[in-house]
Amino acid sequence: MTLTIRTVAILIFAAAACVPAYAQKTLRIGLAEDPDVLDPTLARTFVGRVVFAGLCDKLFDLDEKLNIVPQLATEYKWATDSKSLTIKIRSGVTFHDGEKLDAEAVKFNLERHKTMQGSNRRGELAPVTSIDVVDPLTIRLNLSGPFAPLLAVLTDRSGMMVSPKAAKAAGDKFSSHPVCSGPFKFVERVAQDRIVLERFPNYWNKSQIFFDKVVYLSIVDSTVRLANLKSGQLDFIERAAPSDIPAISKDKRFKVTKMVEIGYQGIDFNVGKSDFAAKSPVRDARVREAFELSLDRKAIVEVVMEEQADPGNQWVSPSNPWYAKNMPIPKRDVARAKALLKEAGVPNPSFTLITTTTSDAQRLAQVVQAMVKDSGFDMKIQAAEFATSLDMADKGQYEAYVLGWSGRADPDGNLYNFLVCKSPNNYAGYCKPEVDELINKSRVTLDPAERRKLFEQVAAHVLKDRPIVYLYHRHLLWVYTNKLNGVRPIQDGLLRLQGLKSS
User: Fold this and answer.
1) What confidence tens digit (pLDDT) does each residue in 317-336 have?
2) Position 19 confidence tier, pLDDT thresholds 50, 70, 90
3) CA 416 to chain centre
4) φ, ψ of residue 151 in degrees (nearest 5)
């Protein structure tokens, strides 16, 4: 294998971090990408959430069965009309700068999420109209109406708490030195290389923390990531390559954990985000339908993911209880695809698919390219570093874009921000009032059976319009040294550091 300068640098740093004095105390984690901003209000990447799991505690968390459990909160109570939620805050919690976590701090954070320029949490907390401090350790969230996903929202970045003092002082530079209340505090970040955290001695749950330092290394190449693990330079890697699992499973030095993600992998189309793709053939719904009919999802999973994924056509997998059964996965139909392209007046449509530089995304793009060619598509592939590609999507500087979503326990987290008009992550620029009405109604409907009916109606619209063509749901593959104990497989794909030990 040829080692690039980048790879050598990674290995040199990892080797330096692996001196005997830290063999039992430093946890080294290999990330598949480099996170974006380390500010819970602004962040939007999956790997950023992996880092936040060690840096920023949340009001609530998830357990192995996706049940919502307390973290910085200790209990909650809904009003009889479900229009307010009262939350008790854990006592004795301090931020990494020594400031106390109390009701005022929680209010500050929730209001920051709602009002800060560029916030990606605004849509998640839109139904929260005001926040009352009931007493020093109690807050009340007042809502515009019942909001079914609220507790689930607070298990993620909307529920993360940062130090108000530090946030006010740093302003828009807060992400360069984030101050939270998690088990580890920020030390340094080298872009495209590493993020270093050290144990916070005053952590409220410090008896469950057994490492002095955590180093997150961004290593895009899965082969290099695995090589670092095998050589002892890493203790844990997330999203291992599916092709590596059969062999690594036989190596007694390592353990493998597998979970079906609660998110999805798919392709976004610029249907209204900007004028960049105004003349692109993908603006025609018939072309997007032809595109989907050119695909064989089962074959995609076999080739791209080595069968380490479940084929799917929605924002949740077919095994998920929220899956809309009225819209099953369509079968490949090249003849129908060709007829649709002819009807649209573009028998050989040409467009560019943006993809990240990760190996999975590259393989997916190449397999899709080969499949749609059979129907007459001339699809070009343009690779870009992850943060760059996300910026292109955000600005609408693309025609089609390979994008995955890590998923949320409540399906609203996979829907609202991506499909409601002008929502933060609506990279497709999709806007349909009927869909907005259905999704908003699903948010205020507390009865699960009624919510399922609403999601079926959403599916009937969205899967016909195809602003996103959903493809599959990955098996999240963790590989780690057999000396690491206490790993908790939770389907959101985040590694909880509480309880992790090295034997």
Assistant:
1) 999 989 999 999 999 999 99
2) very low
3) 14
4) -60, -40
Contacts of 475 (CB under 8 A, 6+ apart): 242, 258, 259, 260, 261, 305, 308, 309, 310
Find out whether 400 and 267 touch, Cβ atoms under 8 Å.
yes
Say how many CA atoms lie within 13 Å of 109 toward its Cβ.
29
Domain 5-56+167-261+476-502 matching CATH 3.30.365.10: the answer reads no
Other beta carbons within 10 Å of 201: 8
Q: How far apart are CA 257 and CA 480, in angstroms?
A: 9
Q: Judging by DSSP bridges, how do beta strands 350-356 and 378-384 pair with one another?
A: parallel
Distance, CA of 104 to CA of 132 (rounded, Å)? 9
In the numeric block, the tokens 């993360």 are attached to: 160
> pLDDT tens digits for 387-413?
899 999 999 999 999 998 989 989 999
Report pLDDT for 321: 87
Amino acid at 195: I
Summarize the confidence of residues 109-127 as an average pLDDT: 93
Longest dimension (CA), the chain: 69
Q: Is 65 exposed, middle or buried (0-12, 13-18, 19+ CB in 10 A)?
A: exposed
Task: Tell the CATH topology of 264-474.
Answer: Dipeptide-binding Protein; domain 3 (3.10.105)
Entry pTM: 0.80
The Cα–Cα gap between 238 and 44 comes to: 18
- What's the angle, vertex CA 369, arms to CA 367 and CA 373, rounded to 5? 120
Q: What mean pLDDT is predicted for residues 372-393?
A: 95
Q: Where are the domains of the chain?
A: 5-56+167-261+476-502, 60-164, 264-474
- Based on its alpha-carbon atoms, the radius of gyration of the chain, rounded to whole angstroms, reads 23
Instruction: Report how far residue 67's alpha carbon sits from residue 61's, in angstroms, rounded to the nearest whole number.
Output: 8
pLDDT of 278-305, one tens digit each?
999 999 999 999 999 999 999 999 999 9
Q: How confident is the model at residue 238 (pLDDT cuts 50, 70, 90)?
A: very high
pLDDT value, residue 15? 46
Q: Rounded to the nearest 5 degrees, what angle is found at the Cα of 40, between the Cα atoms of 136 and 426? A: 125
Cα distance between residue 51 and residue 351, in whole Å:
35
What string of H, E and C letters represents the secondary structure of 331-342? CCCHHHHHHHHH
